[in-house]
Amino acid sequence: MLHALQRTAGNAAVSRAVAGTSPVMVQRTVDEGLRKAKTPDEIVAALKKSGHSQDDAWELMRYMTSQQFPAGAGQGGFDILDSIKRASDEPIPRIRKTMAAGLMGKRWTIRHYTGEDPGNPPGFKEIASTYENAAAGRPGKHTNVADWRSLGNIKFTFYLVAVDGKVPPRKWLNDTHWYAEWDLDEIGECWVSPDLLETMNKPKDAKGAREAMKGVKAFRGTGKELKELLATKAFGSGNDPAAALDTVIGGAFELKVPGGLPVAKWQKK
Asked: Is 227 helix (H, G, I), strand (E, B) or coil?
């Protein structure tokens, strides 16, 4: 598989949170350096100082969002992983699987679009996370501090899902000319949700953050597990299953992979 589970501690924490077995303790120590940081460079420095720069993608997301949405009086801490359900735990009626077999049989891939120069493909050979780029002095121009603070998903990389070569409509695709592609079945770990920035980029305490995430449809698992879940939910939603994923997930669909993925080749859009 292209992307194996990253780290035992992080995955165990995710399993506990998603399974809902016992409450997962969220660190509540106030990280003043992280709270005061105003730029990606300052955030990276604060995470290094606190020791959280070595956290895997899941643990870092938990830590940063627990800092962004602190517990008020009498509240438990906020753990964003409680809102990301395990795809394999979602009940799928057998009849739905049978009906969606044709859709699942289509080619499902994930694509990362980039490149403003139509004449020359991008020069990098790996899709790097926002954190990796900032730590290397390459902060992304499309990512602002609000993304970092309110979502904490800075060690994930982002993709669109394509079904038989077609992706959902996005205005920002007009500014790109190249894409890299991977089979969804070969992705060992990923998660899907709508774009959460509008939902979470507001002042909230831990209770408010939990309330905001209650209606969010977010699922994690292997690429195969997510394909089955999404196909059975998207079946019957029209002739464009890639676009139907926005409806299934309740907003602009995103797939996230912890860490980066290697680029075998860039393809012209």
From this structure: helix
State which amino acid sits at residue 45: A
Pairing of strands 219-221, 85-86: parallel
Q: How far is it, in rounded angstroms, from Cα 90 to Cα 65?
A: 25
Cα 188 to chain center, whole Å? 14
Structure token pair of residue 87: 């795809």
For residues 124 and 202, the answer to whether their CB atoms sit within 8 Å is no
Q: What is the DSSP letter of 221?
A: E
**Alpha-carbon distance 16 to 219, whole Å?**
15
CA distance to 123, 217, 241, per residue, from 221 (Å): 31, 14, 20
- Give yes or no for residue 35 having a pLDDT over 60: yes
Q: 221 phi and psi, to 5 degrees?
A: 160, -165
Over residues 166-197, the pLDDT tens digits come to 999 999 999 999 999 999 999 999 999 999 98
Tokens, residue 146: 């609000």
User: Closest Cα partner for 160 from 138, 144, 182, 143?
Assistant: 182
SS3 50: helix
pTM of the model: 0.86
Do residues 76 and 213 touch, judged by C-beta distance below 8 A? no
User: Cα dihedral sign for 74, 79, 83, 89?
Assistant: negative
- Measure the CA–CA gap between 54 and 105, rounded to whole angstroms: 39
